[in-house]
Amino acid sequence: MVPTHGSAGHDPRRYHGPMPHADGSALAPTPRPWRRIPLLGVHVDDLTLTETVDAVDTLIAERGVHQHVVVNVAKIVAASRDPHLRAIIDACTIINADGQPVVWASRLLGSPLRERVTGVDLMDRLIASAGARGHRVYLLGARPDVVRAVAERIAREHPATVVAGYRDGYWHPDEEPGVAEGIAAAHADILFVAIGSPTKERFLARWKDTLGTPFVMGVGGSFDVYAGRVRRAPVWVQRLGLEWLFRLLQEPRRMWRRYLGDAPRFAALVVRSWWARRPARPR
Q: Strands 19-20 and 163-167: what pairing?
C-alpha cells in the first residue's frame, strides 16, 4: 500500500553505562542479551543479519523507541573526533558493523565479529518481512523521485507491507518539528531514514521520543540502491571487502573524499589500538 506524499520538501553482554546528550540528559538503551564489544572508540554488537532481524521483531513487540545504527570506516573516524556523535552511537539499542574493514579490525584486535551486517541488507529483509509481521514502515530521505520509487517498489514486490508514509530528505530547519510530527502521525512500526551522516544520527537522537516509532534506523544511501539509481557491487566484490571501491568508481566526485580521506585515519586508529594492547615488555 502506497500513500500519497505526505509533505512537500525542498530541493560484553550489556551496555556500559549511559552516554550524555549535549543537553546533559542520558542516552541509554535497555541492556540486551548479546555481546557488545568496544572497538576503536565506539561499541559494536556481535549479531548476524538473521539475529538482528529477530532482535528487531522483539524490540517492536516491546514498543518503546529503539534506535539502530551501523558503523563503517567513515563513521568510526567521525566519532573519534566528535564525542557527541560517539555518545549517540553507543546509546543505540543495536549497533551493527556495516563495513568489512570494521570486521577485519575486530579480528585483528582480538574481539572478532562474526559477520558484517549492512544497512541495505537489513532494510531489505525488514521490508520483505514487514507484511507478514504486521509492521508498518515509513520512508524518510533521499530525493522526492527516489523515495517515491522505493515506495512503489515495495507496493509492487511486497503488497502486504504497508507504507504508512514517506517524504524526501530536504527541508528547512524550521520545518523539522513538522517533519517529526508527520512521522508520529503515521503510526509506523519501522522508520528508515536515508539522509547523510551524522545528520541522520543527530535527527533520530533529537526526535525519536516525538516520533514514537518503535524501531528507527538510518540507512544512508540505501534508498538509491533499492530504487535502482545506484548499482550494488556483485556478491564476490562484497566478500572481498571491495564494495567501497565499486561505489567509488560509480560516483568518484561524491565519494572520493569519504573513502580515500578516511581510510588513512581509520588505519591509524587500528594501528594505535593494536599497539596499545600489546603486552608490556619485562624490564
A: unpaired
Query: Residue 104 burial by CB count (10 A; 0-12/13-18/19+): exposed, middle or buried?
Result: middle
CA distance 154 to 247: 24
State CA 99 to chain mean position distance. Answer: 11
Per-residue model confidence as pLDDT tens digits over 230-242? 877 667 666 666 6
Radius of gyration of the chain measured on its C-alpha atoms: 19
Q: Name the nearest CA neighbour of 227 among 161, 159, 148, 170.
A: 148
Q: What burial class does residue 202 get, using C-beta atoms within 10 Å of its C-beta: 0-12 exposed, 13-18 middle, 19+ buried?
A: middle
0.85 surpassed by pTM: no
Rounded Cα–Cα distance for residues 246 and 118 (Å): 15
Q: What count of Cα atoms within 13 Å lies in the side-chain half-sphere of residue 249? A: 8
Structural domain boundaries of the chain? 19-226
Angle at 198 between CA 107 and CA 24, to 5 degrees: 100
Euclidean distance between CA atoms 153 and 142, whole angstroms: 15
Q: DSSP string spanning 209-229?
A: HHH--SEEEE-TTHHHHHTTS
Of 105, 97, 99, 101, the residue nearest 51 (C-alpha): 97
Q: Give me the phi and psi of 54, to 5 degrees please.
A: -65, -40
Confidence of residue 104 (pLDDT cuts 50, 70, 90): very high
